[in-house]
Amino acid sequence: MTVHDKRLAKSHDDILEAMADALDIPPSKFEEAKNRYEAIGNWLDRPESSIAQYDPSISPQGSFLLGTVTRPLTDTEEYDVDLVCRLEATKADFTQKSLKEAVGREVALYARAHGMVVPEERRRCWTLNYAAGAQFHMDILPALPDSQRYQVKLLMEGHRALAQDAALSGHAIAITDKTLPHYDQPTEDWPQSNPTGYAAWFRGRMRVRLTEAKRALSQRERITASVEEIPDYKVKTPLQRAIQLLKRHRDCMFAEDGEHKPISIVITTLAAHAYNEEPTISAALQSILTGMDRFIEDRGGIAWVANPVNPGENFAD
């Protein structure tokens, strides 16, 4: 490679880095969202809360957890902050309906106490809408711990390694879905999700660059905390940057065609599979764009993008 080629390659990555940085959620907006959802968590766990006995906790899922948030395409759109509200309870304590209503009641009280509009009930979650200036809303998903049933299911389907990896399967949850026929009946058969396990898999696909980025931040800002103590959201890897760029490309390409717009989890999963710890955004994009299609399976004529921590689930359904 010539000196000119090296300079050109560097300029490509400078441009891509600047583009991805412009797409990222501003730190002040991230902190605002974080403070808001922590405030909701404190409200749900206050002594007067009707669900306080179940030790409710709020945690992010989706792009806020994965570090792949992108700014809305237009000023009229909002950041979608996906949250899990987990209660330390069992299916003997709740039906899906009663769990949804118990969490919804407290979320509604929070909204009223803070002068907000009444939360909207969705199929699986409650949506809390903030004033226009906030430019985000929060989708709060009621959930119960369900790792044992999740691991048994993985074992029955032949995924022994996954079932035995606590980081990938030990934090699975049972969630609610008001369209199911047994929604209001006592049953063990609840829908399941595993955002914490997926995030652990995702971090594993970029472990080298994540550690490297934290070490660089520590040296640059003379942080006394160890690399392990630096929060993931403080840094960005080439994989995360590449996904942000791909999501914005998707937003622009399908701006007039919402029906065929690929969902973010499909882009994220395919990109993470194809990524090979490349050190730059341009190299990451090249690897992803030339290899991501290899991870779309054909299962009996059905396009299948398997959930890496639950292969029986098709993200492309």
Task: Describe, in plain words, how this protein is organized in 3D.
Strands 1, 2, 3, 4, 5, 6 and 7 form a 7-stranded mixed sheet that branches. A two-stranded antiparallel sheet has the order 8-9. It has a two-stranded antiparallel sheet with strand order 10-11. The termini are far apart. Helix 10 crosses helix 12 and helix 11 packs across helix 12. The radius of gyration is 21 Å and the shape is globular. The mean pLDDT is 93. The protein has 317 residues and is an alpha+beta fold. It has helices spanning 3-23, 27-44, 63-66, 96-113, 147-156, 160-164, 166-169, 195-204, 207-220, 238-253, 264-274, 281-291; strands spanning 57-60, 79-86, 120-121, 126-129, 136-145, 173-175, 192-193, 297-299, 302-304, 306-307, 310-314. The protein has 12 helices and 11 strands.
Give keywords.
317 residues, alpha+beta, 7-stranded mixed sheet, 45% helix
Mean pLDDT: 93
Protein structure class: alpha+beta
Q: What is the rounded Rg?
A: 21 Å
Mass-distribution shape: globular
Brief rundown of the structure:
The protein is an alpha+beta fold.
Task: Please give the structural blueprint.
Blueprint: H1 3-23, H2 27-44, E1 57-60, H3 63-66, E2 79-86, H4 96-113, E3 120-121, E4 126-129, E5 136-145, H5 147-156, H6 160-164, H7 166-169, E6 173-175, E7 192-193, H8 195-204, H9 207-220, H10 238-253, H11 264-274, H12 281-291, E8 297-299, E9 302-304, E10 306-307, E11 310-314
Parallel strand pairs: 2-5
Antiparallel strand pairs: 1-2, 3-4, 4-5, 5-6, 6-7, 8-9, 10-11
